[in-house]
Structures are given as structure tokens and as C-alpha cells.
Amino acid sequence: MRILLLSLLPIILTAQPQFQTRRSAGATPPTTGQQQITAAGTQQAPPPVDPATYGSISGIMTNALTGEPLSKATVTLRIVDSGDRTIGGVPRSYAATSDASGQWAIPNIAPGKFRLSAKRTGYVEMDFGANDPQYNGTIITLAAKQNMSGVLFRLFPHGVITGKILDQDGEPMQGAQVQAMRAKYSQGRKQLISYGDASTNDIGEFRVYGLPPGRYFLSVSTNRREFGGGGPPGRGGPRTVVAQTPEEEYIPTYYPGTNDVATAIPVELGPGAQMRGFEMTLRKKRTVKVTGKVIDTTGSDKNRMMVSLVPTGPAAPGSTRRAMRMDQNGNFEITGVPPGSYTLVAAIPARQKSVSSRMPLQVGASGVENATITINLPMNLIGRVRIEGNPTPPSGLSLGLRSLEPDLMPFGGPPPSVKTDAGGNFQLLNVNPDLYALSISGMPDGSYIKSILVNGVDSQLIGIDLTRGVAGPIDIVLSPNAGAATGLVQNEQAQPAANVTVVLVPQEVERKSNSQFYRTTSTDATGHFSLAGLIPGSYRVHAWEVIESGAYMDPDFMRPFENRGEPLTVKESGKEDLQVKITN
Q1: Edge-to-edge order in the sheet of strand 379-387
Q2: Within 10 Å of residue 164's Cβ, how many Cβ atoms?
Q3: Which pLDDT tens digit goes with each residue over 200-220?
């Protein structure tokens, strides 16, 4: 059966393994339907969309392994845009459900660029054009009055991992927590992210389901009682512990039986695969104790205070240790700690604004005594944004802070964000002492951040350090002279490569650890790409058919590719056109 589009394009749209990273740092979003921002910084609402231009999209949903039609699948079409919930008075997303024959249809769609996704019970939720939920799919462009039909969407059945957990005596362990984890990148650092978990039953068996294809690490941990008497204290008194913690206990273990994730053996799970018979034996290890005191300068409610040890590196979430004993004077005790490198985190959660602090801590074979950590009052930051050579300040720009330690839980809540006022001024309130990068969205077309001056020092490379006190007024300068680049990506056969990820990698050593100096996009159906708002500097342009988001910031990953890619020098107001080969 031939599948045709009503636009008469001889293209069969299928969910083939073409990839684009979902979390692409610094990608330039399409401008379809976005609010337009003038050089003066004023926003103009987009005009309403004429219903006479509406089109439609329809297709069939099938099982990717058997080809059989799938009913009851929810299909969602979402516009590729970062603006408000509605664009020009039309919805940002549309939805439909497949019928008994797998057919689905979405009518009355305003023209634009979209991504299509689908989900169904027992199947992996994913984008059209991708075979991993962590990747974006193909961008679908719907022209005015276009009725696109025959879209073949294939969903993969989810995978399952089953097995059994035994204790060191060979007896089944009930209530052990098993996690199927995958390594993902966060600002160039690998972290293990749980994709599914399960508890063992009375005979030690577990079943983790709902897993997409991929490479998994199995992690097993036990549930430790953190509070005596069955729960956290209220305002009535300090926390207590009923029994002493033994010097040996079960600590997180990775398949096939190691406590070090670096020596763990990953499990390759294919589409819809059911892998059975995994067996792991947990053995008790000698652990140590960390004691110390939290100095609170905020006057907050100490009864809510939390102290935790978070492992440094790609450890499982179950490796985090909470203080089991703490009094109203801030003295704490954390038991069952395997020696290693940690971050000590102290936080006081609150309904309006939590406060927190953290410090590195090395735990040796004898533990740690009398560690001291101070929680300081959150601070307010003030500043101004201006455009170089333009006396009119930019209003309505969105500013936000991003922690430079993204692998740690945001105990103090997410960093604040704010918009600039008519004079380009802003205030960021109740910011916890930490090290941050500052980001700006909604900048005028063709501009880039030239400098972020804090106390006269440019913080773009080093970050805004609030761990030593309040920073002075922040002076942000935008330049209207950003560079731009366009290009064509070709495969090994010198043919245009569609829907591949294009990454602009900075070559200055001091920029390689900062995500704001990277740019990513994807090629269109003809293999072409465009990048705007580029910061002047030296780059190499790489193109990958398959790459995990953020992997290009990992020095180990990039080492084989350092001398590959197309060199690019970006100058102010410069425009370059390139031909790029796929990076292998």
C-alpha cells in the first residue's frame, strides 16, 4: 500500500531512527507564532490566525514490532514555540485518539511547525521520528490549508526486567528497591537517571516495566528508617532514634554485585524485550558516621531542618543519606555512610521560600566529626540590562539563574526568574547563596550577551558566586552584532542529511565548560541548518545522527572528535555558510 500526502509530496513519514536531542543547550527556537521583540525591547502580540488557513493531519498508529494497528493511542501535536500558551488565539497543542483500526485525525490546525508524539498503555511514549523518549522527533511543517494524511506512526512496546534479590545468607529480601537507571548528561557530566523502579515482594522478586530501549544499570538499595517513632518530628521536639545503627549495613549495589558504579555491568534492553532471571546478592559493608552542626543565621524554623549527604559523581539516588538524629541546636548525626566524596547539604524548607547551603565533604575510613555548615539568609540581586549603542533599554526580557551544580537536588527550591521593567532594570529576590549562571531569553534578534559585570568583573565564564556574600549591582550588556551561520550537512555518500543534530562547539578552553557558549539545532528535510545569535569566537561545527543531549560537553566523549568538524570563526555581525560532514 502506497502512503501519500495530500500535498503530493512523495514522502512516507515513518518513525525511523533519526535523532535530535530533546534538551539541546542554546538551541535557536523557530519563530513561528512567537511574540516579536523590537530592538527597543517592546513586545508586540502576533496577529490572530485566519481560520480559513487551517489544515489537518491524519495517519495510522501501529505496533513497531508486529505492524498491527494500535487502538486507544493518544496522539498529541504541539507547536514548536516557547511563547505563551496560545499563539495568535489558537491552541498550542492538539490531540486525538486512534480507533480500532489504528486511524487517527486532527482537524482545524493553524499553520506552523510542530512535533508529534503518542502514548499508549504498554508502549513507550515517544515523538514521531525518534525511537527514544529522550530525543525530539522530526519537525513537521504544516502550510496554510494543507491537509497532511498517511502519517505512519509506530510505537514500540515497553521493555521489562525481572529478577530476584537475596541477602548475604542467600535468603529472599522483601522491600528492596530496584531501579533501572541510564546515564544521562547534565552540563557535560554523567548522572544516573531512574527510568523505572520496583520493590521486591515476599520472595525477593521484582519486575521493572515501562522501559524504552537502551542501556541500563540495575541498582538495589534497602529502605532505611530515618526517624525514630515512625516519622519526622513536628514542633513538639527534636528528632530521636529508637535503636543504634550498626557499623555494617546494606549499601546501594549495582549489577552484578558491585558497590562502585564504575565497575557495574550495563544491561542492553531491546525494543519490547523482557529480560528475566537477574539475581543479585546484597552483602553488608562497613559504614561510618558523620556528625556536625548546622549554624542557622536566618531565624527559620529549626524543626524543619534537613541535612543530607549527596554523593559526588554518577551515583544512584538511593546513595543519598539523611541525618537520622538532630536536636534543636542544629547538632546532627548521619550514620551508615560508605567512605567517599560527598556534598553536605543543609536546608530549611518553607512554604514561601526555602533556604539552604552546601559544602564539599570527604568521608574517610573513620568517618567525620564536628563538621560545621552555615545557612545564611537568602539575598536580593539588582541589576540592569542595556544594549550597546542603543539608548533605549530593553524591557520584558526574562532573566533566570541556573545552578552550576545541577546534579544536586534543589533543596532551596528552583532559582528565581524575573522580567526587566521599562528601564531595563530587574530584581532577583530571595536567592540562596550558591554559584549561578545567568540566562536571558527574549533578546532582540541578532543580539548576544556581551558581558555580565558583577563588581566590575565579567561573570560569564566564572559564574555569579554568592557563597561569599551579596554581589553588587549586575550590569548586563547586550550587543546587537551577533554572528550567524548557515550550512548543509552531508552524509558519507555526499547526500543531504536530514534531521541530524548540529552542534557548535567552542574551542576556547575556558568556554568549553559553559553551556551558554554552545549552540545546537537540527537540519531540515534538505539537510540545511541555520544558527543565529552567535557569540563571537572560535568554534567547530559537528553533526551527529545519534548523540545524547549534553554529551558534546563531556571531554571524554569529545576526545576522538576534537580535530573533526568544520572550523568556524564567528565575528561580530559576521555571516558564514558551511558544508559539514557527519561526525563519525
Answers
A1: 425-431, 379-387, 474-479, 448-454, 457-458
A2: 20
A3: 999 999 999 989 888 999 999
* Distance from C-alpha of 231 to C-alpha of 240, rounded to nearest angstrom: 10
Q: Is the distance from CB of 326 to CB of 232 less than 8 angstroms?
A: no
Cell 523557530 found at: 30
Query: Are 316 and 391 contained in the same domain?
Result: no
Q: Are 66 and 472 in contact (CB under 8 A)?
A: no
Instruction: Determine if the peptide bond prior to 256 is cis (ω within 30°).
Output: yes
**β pairing state of 464-465 and 205-211:** unpaired
Burial state string for 514-533 with b = 16 or more CB within 10 A and e = fewer than 16: bbbbbbbbbbeeebebebbb
The CATH number of whichever domain residue 387 belongs to comes to 2.60.40.10
Q: How far apart are CA 547 and CA 24, in angstroms?
A: 11
Lowest mean pLDDT among 25-39, 362-376, 381-395: 25-39
Q: Parallel, antiparallel, or unpaired: how do β-strands 575-581 and 483-490 relate?
A: parallel
N-terminal to C-terminal alpha carbon distance within the chain: 36
For the whole model, what pTM was predicted? 0.69
Using DSSP, state whether 297 is helix, strand or coil.
coil
What single string gives the DSSP state of each residue in 206-240?
EEEEEEPSEEEEEEEE-PPP-SGGGS---TTS---
354 lies in some domain: yes
Range of the domain at 347: 159-375
Spatial separation of the C-alpha atoms in residues 324 and 196, rounded to whole Å: 27
pLDDT tens sequence across 49-100: 788 889 999 999 999 999 999 999 999 999 885 443 445 566 788 999 999 9
What is the C-alpha to C-alpha distance for residues 185 and 442, in angstroms, rounded to an integer? 26
pLDDT digits (tens, 9 = 90+) for 262-289: 899 999 998 889 999 999 999 888 889 9
